[in-house]
């Protein structure tokens, strides 16, 4: 891809529109509950400020369905960012309109404004040209630093860019492309992919693409139940996709043809439901009728950790179980620690739940790269051209 970065562009005194991903969880008291995404965008924002740009930040938050909704206002985010930057961040009262126009016109060099939630306007998700032109009127330079939305063709990620003469990517996206791109090129082997989450259907395309690249795929989470059932297992009340059993069998056959090892759970932690105070370890292929598999078991964690320990390149996406619930967190945390323990390997983690898991396990600092984009990172690894990146190409 031939995309300029913010460092390549002349931004002094210019209005620099930075699309960020500040879709962060909020506390009941309307504070920022997890500032990870904001912190990831700081290097780009600080660079723009230091180089005398007039900075216009834009993001969505939640799903307000094209209408203003105080519950999804970016006010808490603007307040948090102002505190971190040590300078005023002016939030407009709407994403486009006379109020926003005046705030941006009043910006001085090094000043920062933030547009109110882009999804307060139906034109954002519809990629409406009128809305895109309005956003573009605030920009002399366009920078996309929201990798988590790069797979969406919205007005702020695609539509407005053709109306702005200078464009590029921020430091966050530059880092994402660098590390995820390495996984698509020549890598040190063994190359192990660890894939979890709820549905086979969500991950089948990336699994297929990985077959031609990896040496082994370790599968956990509820999606493993579908593969276990496809191999004749009794899964009790476990969540699985009955209509995907044929696809699961086909994938296992293809993996054998590619000489790719597929490691499925040998044991699982099962319980009556996710609110259970504890679970019991049972054989993965024989879950009692009244129970559901909610985590990989200790034998599986050991088997996964053993293979992970030999790997030179590791990609992990998706939890191994219902890790938000303490009784079913050990598998995901165990895998996180195993990935972090591999010395000298390229370790890339993608997806919101996996990211939360490595932070929970306290090992985030020991990984090569933690991707901020779940769906975007998967589509990138499927070999797709992400609309938000394609629009930046010169």
Quick recap:
The chain has 14 helices and 15 strands. With 394 residues, the protein is α/β, with parallel strands linked by helices. Strands 3-4-2-1-5-6 form a 6-stranded parallel β-sheet. Strands 9-8-7-13-14-15 form a 6-stranded parallel β-sheet, with helices on both faces. A 3-stranded antiparallel β-sheet has the order 11-10-12.
C-alpha Rg (nearest Å): 22 Å
Number of domains: 2
Major β-sheet profile? 6 strands, parallel
CATH architecture of the largest domain: 3-Layer(aba) Sandwich
Summing up helix and strand content along with how strands pair, one would put the structural category as alpha/beta
| % residues in beta strands | 15-25%
- Write the CATH fold name of the largest domain: Rossmann fold
Determine the number of helices (DSSP H or I, runs of at least 4 residues): 14
Average pLDDT reading: 94
Describe it for me?
By secondary structure, this protein is α/β, with parallel strands linked by helices. It folds into two domains: 6-173, Phosphoglycerate kinase, N-terminal domain (Rossmann fold, 3-Layer(aba) Sandwich); 185-381, 3-Layer(aba) Sandwich (Rossmann fold), CATH 3.40.50. The chain is 36% helix and 16% strand. The chain is built from 14 helices and 15 strands. The protein has helices at residues 36-50, 75-85, 98-105, 123-126, 129-136, 171-184, 200-211, 222-230, 245-257, 298-310, 330-341, 352-360, 374-381, 387-390; strands at 15-19, 54-58, 89-91, 112-114, 141-144, 166-169, 191-195, 216-219, 261-263, 267-271, 280-283, 292-296, 313-317, 346-350, 369-370. The strands form three sheets. The protein has a six-stranded parallel β-sheet with strand order 3-4-2-1-5-6. α10 (298-310) packs parallel to α11 (330-341). The longest helix has 15 residues, at 36-50. The protein is elongated. The chain starts with 14 loop residues before the first strand and ends with a helix.
């Amino acid at each position: 891809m031939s995309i300029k970065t913010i460092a390549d562009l002349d931004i002094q005194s210019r209005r620099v529109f930075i699309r960020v991903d500040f879709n962060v969880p909020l506390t009941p008291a309307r504070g920022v509950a997890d500032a990870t995404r904001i912190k990831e965008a700081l290097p780009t924002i600080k660079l723009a400020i230091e180089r005398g740009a007039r900075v216009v930040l834009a993001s969505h938050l939640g799903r307000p369905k094209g209408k203003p909704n105080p519950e999804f206002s970016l006010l808490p985010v603007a307040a948090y960012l102002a505190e971190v930057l040590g300078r005023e961040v002016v939030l407009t009262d709407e994403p486009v309109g006379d109020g926003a126009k005046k705030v941006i016109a009043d910006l001085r060099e090094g000043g920062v404004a933030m547009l109110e939630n882009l999804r307060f306007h139906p034109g954002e998700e519809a990629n409406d040209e009128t809305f895109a032109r309005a956003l573009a009127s605030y920009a002399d330079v366009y920078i996309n630093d929201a990798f988590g939305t790069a797979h969406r063709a919205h007005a702020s990620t695609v539509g407005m860019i053709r109306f702005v003469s200078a464009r590029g990517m921020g430091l966050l996206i530059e880092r994402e492309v660098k590390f995820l791109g390495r996984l698509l090129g020549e890598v040190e082997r063994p190359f192990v992919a660890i894939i979890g989450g709820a549905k086979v259907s969500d991950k089948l395309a990336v699994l297929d693409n990985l077959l031609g690249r990896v040496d082994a795929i370790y599968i956990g989470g509820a999606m493993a139940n579908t593969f276990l059932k496809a191999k004749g297992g009794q899964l009790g009340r476990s969540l699985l996709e009955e209509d995907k059993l044929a696809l699961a069998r086909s994938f296992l056959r293809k993996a054998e043809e590619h000489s790719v090892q597929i490691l499925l759970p040998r044991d699982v932690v099962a319980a009556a439901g996710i609110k259970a105070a504890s679970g019991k370890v049972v054989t993965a292929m024989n879950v009692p009728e009244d129970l559901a598999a909610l985590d990989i078991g200790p034998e599986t964690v050991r088997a996964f950790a053993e293979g992970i320990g030999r790997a030179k390149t590791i990609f992990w996406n998706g939890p191994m179980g219902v890790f938000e619930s303490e009784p079913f967190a050990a598998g995901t945390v165990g895998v996180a620690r195993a990935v972090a323990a591999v010395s000298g390997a390229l370790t890339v983690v993608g997806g919101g739940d996996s990211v939360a898991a490595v932070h929970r396990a306290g090992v985030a600092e020991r990984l090569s790269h933690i991707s901020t984009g779940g769906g975007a990172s998967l589509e990138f690894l499927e070999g797709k051209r992400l609309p938000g990146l394609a629009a930046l190409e010169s």
